[in-house]
């Protein structure tokens, strides 16, 4: 495996891709944390936020929790997104190389990126889902400034169920076991396969329309990443709403999706809350996805350059060659 020298250390290619992906995910997530908090509260139909809209929701959070309220749950979000993005980007690159290795005649292009991106997204979700669950539960909670912690049974604006990431993980595991840590993962997988694949597909497809001399420029990368995230998220957003409602079902006595599988939950939301609920928070998500996807792809590509990761066209693929007697001969590197 190709290695690069950084500070006297030989860094394997996969590790460099992990680092690039983790940094990209962390930067993008912190930049849009306030919008993510509001989106979750709208998706899960928190009583205090019904009909509030974007500006009203921001005012409610600021009035009840202060400026730090916009980042409630962001610690768990960053703790999840750094390994998630690292695995996501690295797995995408690895799956892409494996597909080329296993199918030498495959055409390299956006369709390859669609397949590799979809599988990589599923891998990353399964690996980091419990942290996504914790992020949602922490973001769902409200805490009035200066209020003391209250029990789960008290459905007041100042309720405080979980004290932090570890406390949340331990509480969920103690109450529901390992299965509880993966509650709502099915819609996540249903959504991430098309979303992740489409995001990489649209990003790489749009880059083919950028003149070669401008492909390393920041503005084209931001533009391609923005459109890629926008299109991918719009197509898969209803499944994200189902996932959020499943994740907070234990915290809401009126939750419609308790104990129901993904598509039945989807039907129940449409029946009782209306089809518009499937797109609740989508306008805010647009405001979040555009900078998040744009920053994510741009920072990732920039980190790849800084870490001397070869371009996908230049990265070698090792193809084993058999000698006449059937034994392995020296491998051949192909681009």
UniProtKB/TrEMBL annotation:
Keywords from the UniProt entry: Membrane, Mitochondrion, Mitochondrion inner membrane, Repeat, Transmembrane, Transmembrane helix, Transport
GO cellular component terms listed in the entry, alphabetical order: mitochondrial inner membrane
Chief place of localization: mitochondrion
Annotated InterPro entries: GDC-like, MCP, MCP_dom_sf, MCP_transmembrane
Localization: Mitochondrion inner membrane
GO biological process: mitochondrial coenzyme A transmembrane transport
PROSITE patterns for this protein: SOLCAR (PS50920)
Name of the protein in its database record: Graves disease carrier protein
Organism for this UniProt entry: Aegilops tauschii subsp. strangulata (Goatgrass)
């Amino acid at each position: 495996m190709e290695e690069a020298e950084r500070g006297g250390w030989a860094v394997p290619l996969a590790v460099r891709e992990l680092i690039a992906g983790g940094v990209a995910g962390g930067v993008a997530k912190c930049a849009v944390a306030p919008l993510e908090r509001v989106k979750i509260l709208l998706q899960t139909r928190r009583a205090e936020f019904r009909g509030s809209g974007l500006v009203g929701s921001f005012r409610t959070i600021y009035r009840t929790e202060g400026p730090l309220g916009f980042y409630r749950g962001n610690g768990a979000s960053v703790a999840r997104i750094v390994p998630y993005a690292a695995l996501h980007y690295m797995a995408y690159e690895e799956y892409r190389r494996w597909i080329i290795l296993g199918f030498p005649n495959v055409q390299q292009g956006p369709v390859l990126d669609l397949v590799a991106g979809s599988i990589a997204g599923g891998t990353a979700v399964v690996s980091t889902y419990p942290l996504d669950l914790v992020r949602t539960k922490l973001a769902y909670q409200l805490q009035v400034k200066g209020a003391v912690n209250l029990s789960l049974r008290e459905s007041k604006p100042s309720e405080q169920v979980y004290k932090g990431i570890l406390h949340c993980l331990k509480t969920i595991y103690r109450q529901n076991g390992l299965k509880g840590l993966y509650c709502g993962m099915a819609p996540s997988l249903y959504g991430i396969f098309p979303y992740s694949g489409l995001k990489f597909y649209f990003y790489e497809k749009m880059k083919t329309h950028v003149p070669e001399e401008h492909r390393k420029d920041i503005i084209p990368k931001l533009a391609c990443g923005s459109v890629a995230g926008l299109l991918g998220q719009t197509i898969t957003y209803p499944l994200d709403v189902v996932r959020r409602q499943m994740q907070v079902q234990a915290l809401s006595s009126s939750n419609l999706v308790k104990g129901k599988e993904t598509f039945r939950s989807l039907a129940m939301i449409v029946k009782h809350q209306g089809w518009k609920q499937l797109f609740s928070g989508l306008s805010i998500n647009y405001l979040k996805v555009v900078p998040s996807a744009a920053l994510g792809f741009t920072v990732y590509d920039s980190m790849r350059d800084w870490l001397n990761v070869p371009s996908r066209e230049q990265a070698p693929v090792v193809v084993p060659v058999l000698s006449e007697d059937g034994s392995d001969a020296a491998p051949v590197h192909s681009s």
